[in-house]
Amino acid sequence: MMSQDKRKRGDTVSGVSTRSRYRWLAFLAGCSLVFLLSTCQPHSVVTPDRIDTVLLLVVDSLRQDHVGAYGYDRSVTPELDRLSRQGIQFCHAVAQGPWTKPSMASILSGLYPRTHVTSDMYDRLDPAIQLMPTFLRAQGFQTCAFSANSVIVPETGFAQGFDQFHFKELLLQNAEIINRSVVHMLEALPRTERLFAYIHYMDPHFPYLPGEPVFSRENTIVFDLDFFGQQKHLDFLDKPVLKKRLHSELINAYDDGIRFNDRMIGRLLDHLRARGRLDTTLVILTADHGEELLEHQGVTHGQSLFDELVMVPLLISFPGSKSRIETRLVEQVDLCPTLLGLLRTKLPKVLEGQDLFRTSPKGWTYSELELHGRRATSVRSATNKLIDYSQYWEAEDTIRWFQKRAEIPNVSGPTFIFEIMSFHKPRLLDVRLNGQYLKHLTILPHWSTFELNLPNQAKGTITLEARGDCDSPFELGQGHDTRCFSFCLRNSNQVAIQETRERVMVYFDLIEDPTEQKNMLDRPDSSIDLTQIQQTLECYRQKAGTTFHKQVLLPTDEMQTQLRMLGYIE
């Protein structure tokens, strides 16, 4: 590995060595190739020795590609790397959501977000959903949870099935404090007692304020609530030198959080070893989601479904396990049935995941986002990925921005009147009704009112789609908004747009473009047939909400404060 001195001499790209990037891309390509070869091979049934302790270790916001076992060449995760050598490493593990609540609901329930419908900020798990600890408690396990995340609390329904749920003294605390609580519980627990412990660490999570700076010891930027809350990071994005500095220091601080968390996981496993429990312990190490570090001009998480947010580490180690890399596609919904399978427990029919050691490889994985009016679904194979994204605006919003395509549902009557403007220069706009072309308009760089005559008292969805892309960012408020908004709709005395959504679809070739930078649908000569992958996505969506009901909680002032500290609300 390169020394820190070499890193300062320019041998890095934004804090990560160039050599590491090529190694990581080679690792992904190798995994994809082996995956394609392995899909025809049967997977052996795992028969572990007796297990009396199960640890579900979740490191919040831990990206897969910042773990040494997955190709990262910084010495950040020696303990996780050691764990990977003792068990099974899954190199294509996909999160069901890009933020904590939907992902953890899927991990603990074995259900997709479309079914557990716990995806938005104030959603609460339906009490009818049985979680992983319920099944384990029926097998004689003492079930305990230790959560430092203010989303994973009893008020949101995550205490279902746990005998003990520790959170009040742990919220937003570091891994060392979490471990103290776990050790205290272990010391009070008879050695003969079977134990399931879910431990949710938070050290890599925003804000990035490492208690033991190593990589970040010379950082000049403080990545706190004020820095991101006031959007000061936007001042760095329009100048390459400043952006490179922001990226480098951001990675340094993020890696220091991972490094400390990794060391504390090693200490916890050492304690189990000293108590004579580790030899009979099944360890599942994963993350609820990843983290965006400017790859797509974004930071933190919860805003998209790119791989930096949904590709997570997954390591499983148990008595008798042998070191190997699994190249099949796996999902968070598979963890509950896989764990029950390892414990030789009959799988409940309600589970939507599969036992990874007793089923054939799957061809597709799915992720969902529903947060702050953003809705997206992605479908991913080992080689291709489609993301269908919408941003919703409700009636109380006066101005609705969109970049290329907007949909206005529930339009009816003989005419539709709306106001619209373009930024920078006049642009052509195609207008469709229920997918059928109506006409094109020229939108000027000031507010203009248009009246559309709709055929036969039409009812349905109006689609406005720009020809061409916006090619320069628009300065909006503080700093520069890099999303480059092109158009703006507005309610007025003449128009009442009740609901609007921006619609974007992107499609990536993950072999040619593993970092998802080139939307294949934007190619001028694109003649891609999306029929199969769109049908796969639609089949997935059609099963949504068939079993459980959305529950909405009334947040307390304390909960609001905690969510604000995590950057989830303003």
Which regions have little confidence, pLDDT < 50, spanning 5+ residues? 1-23, 32-44, 472-483
**What class, by secondary structure content?**
alpha+beta
Radius of gyration of CA atoms, rounded to a whole number: 25 Å
Query: What characteristic shape results from the CA principal axes?
Result: globular
Rounded to the nearest angstrom, the distance between the terminal CA atoms is 40 Å
Q: Write down the overall mean pLDDT.
A: 84
Task: Write a structural description.
With 570 residues, the protein is an alpha+beta fold. Helices cover 25% and strands 26% of the residues. It is built from 13 helices and 30 strands. Strand 26 (474-475) and strand 27 (480-481) form a beta hairpin. Helix 7 runs parallel beside helix 9 (240-274). It is globular, with a radius of gyration of 25 Å. It starts with a helix and ends in a 5-residue tail after the last helix. Mean pLDDT is 84; it is low at 1-23, 32-44 and 472-483.
In short:
The chain is an alpha+beta fold and 570 residues long.
Give the helices and strands, then pairings.
Elements: H1 4-8, E1 12-13, E2 16-17, H2 18-38, E3 53-59, H3 78-86, E4 88-90, E5 93-94, H4 100-109, H5 113-116, E6 123-124, H6 132-137, E7 141-147, E8 164-166, H7 175-188, E9 194-201, H8 225-229, H9 240-274, E10 281-286, E11 292-293, E12 299-300, H10 307-310, E13 314-317, E14 324-326, E15 330-331, H11 335-342, E16 365-371, E17 374-380, E18 384-393, E19 399-402, E20 405-412, E21 415-422, E22 427-433, E23 436-443, E24 448-453, E25 459-466, E26 474-475, E27 480-481, E28 487-490, E29 500-509, H12 531-542, E30 551-552, H13 557-565
Parallel strand pairs: 3-9, 3-10, 4-14, 5-15, 7-8, 7-9
Antiparallel strand pairs: 1-2, 4-13, 6-30, 10-13, 11-12, 16-17, 17-18, 18-29, 19-28, 20-25, 20-29, 21-24, 21-28, 22-23, 22-25, 26-27
Helix pairs in contact: 7-9
